Amino acid sequence: MKNLRIITVLALVLVTLTATSCKNDKKEQGNVEEKNTEMNHDNSDGHHDGNKKEMVMAENQNENSETILKDYFNLKDALVSDDNEKAKELGETLTKSLSNFDVSEYTDAQKIELKDIIKDAKEHAEHISESPMEHQREHFKILSKDVIDMVAITGTANKLYEQYCPMYDDGSAWLSMNEEIRNPYYGDKMLKCGKVQREIN
Amino acid sequence: MKFVKYIALILLLAFVGIQFVPTERNQSDIVPKIDFMLVYEVPTHVKKKIKISCYDCHSNNTKYPWYNKIQPVAWFLEDHIKEGKAELNFNEWGSLSSRRKASKLRSIIKQVESGEMPLDSYTLIHSDAKFSEADKKEIIKYIKQLKNSLPN
């Protein structure tokens, strides 16, 4: 009977533990949701900024559009060389630099547009950081559009080539530092498929 | 044998215990004006399919069958709904910019096309949420048309 008492006590402890640990979980999840819905509502909310500050502390200060381009090109190269793992890593890097993008030097209208672009690009970069190759390329297509639109506002110091592959998903564009075509949508399968459709700078 | 009994007892107690942990219910009677179905004039059949197959996890209102109120199923579900809503909330469609709408519509097309959505774990229980090939075609055609009508 002594055994039974011990077991009962143990069971009660277990139940309490489960109950409390789950409550903690819930609190955290609640916060996450709050964050998410807030982010859905508006670009310029306090929460978002708080987040940004934290990340800035950990990462470099005031990322600019050139950092984003650099990360984007690295990601593109990983896709060109069919490297799923590398692309995942670089997707994460790009997510971070997008979060740290400092838009304060732009006009109000540009800020709105840039924040919209960053929000969208971030989502695609996040997906790239956790997806198989095929999905990464799907997201890279939209990410490329976002980055092209970003450059239209921010400009860039380097000469860039907007390249275009008519075969992938009814036609898809990307940016490159080199004139020579290296197709990120097909990689090794069709490395040289595509053409330069525009030169920037 | 005693030992087995004790284990069973512990499990039973734990099971009863976790039923008292409150879960957040995803339920709301309010359908905001920015809801997908109010922003667009969605054809009746497409509307019905999307509501049945997507709205449980991609809106502010989930229709809970009785077994989804029991733990630990309810927790599992809660997570799914949170994730689903963070990715896409049909109730808040109108608040998205054109760029975001285009992104989301594209994702919807890809997910439906590849059969990734609705989730197998969901259609297993909700057989009416399954898309037939004809449903898929009709939905994709409609969503593509919406996507093309967005300003670039």
Q: What order do the helices and strands of chain A follow? A: HHHHHHEEE
H/I helix tally of chain B: 7
Number of domains of chain A: 1
Give the helix tally of chain A: 6
> What profile does the largest beta sheet of chain B have?
none
Count of extended strands of chain A: 3
Q: Output the structural class of chain B.
A: mainly alpha
Give the overall form of chain A. globular
**Proportion of residues in extended strands of chain B:** under 5%
Overall pLDDT metric of chain A: 78
SSE pattern of chain B: HHHHHHH
Q: Please list the strands of the largest sheet of chain A in the order they lie side by side.
A: 2-1-3
- Poorly predicted regions of chain B: none
Helix content of chain B: 55-70%
Proportion of residues in helical segments of chain A:
55-70%
Strand content of chain A: 5-15%
Number of strands of chain B: 0
The largest contact between protein chains, plus residue counts on each side, is: A-B, 32 and 30 residues
- How would you sum up the major sheet of chain A? 3 strands, antiparallel
General shape of chain B: elongated
Number of domains of chain B: 1
Write the layout of secondary structure elements.
The complex is a heterodimer of chains A (201) and B (152).
Chain A: H1 2-41, H2 46-58, H3 65-80, H4 84-99, H5 108-128, H6 133-154, E1 160-165, E2 172-176, E3 195-200
Antiparallel strand pairs in A: 1-2, 1-3
Helix pairs in contact in A: 3-4, 3-6, 4-5, 5-6
Chain B: H1 2-18, H2 36-39, H3 44-58, H4 73-87, H5 98-114, H6 120-123, H7 133-149
Helix pairs in contact in B: 5-7
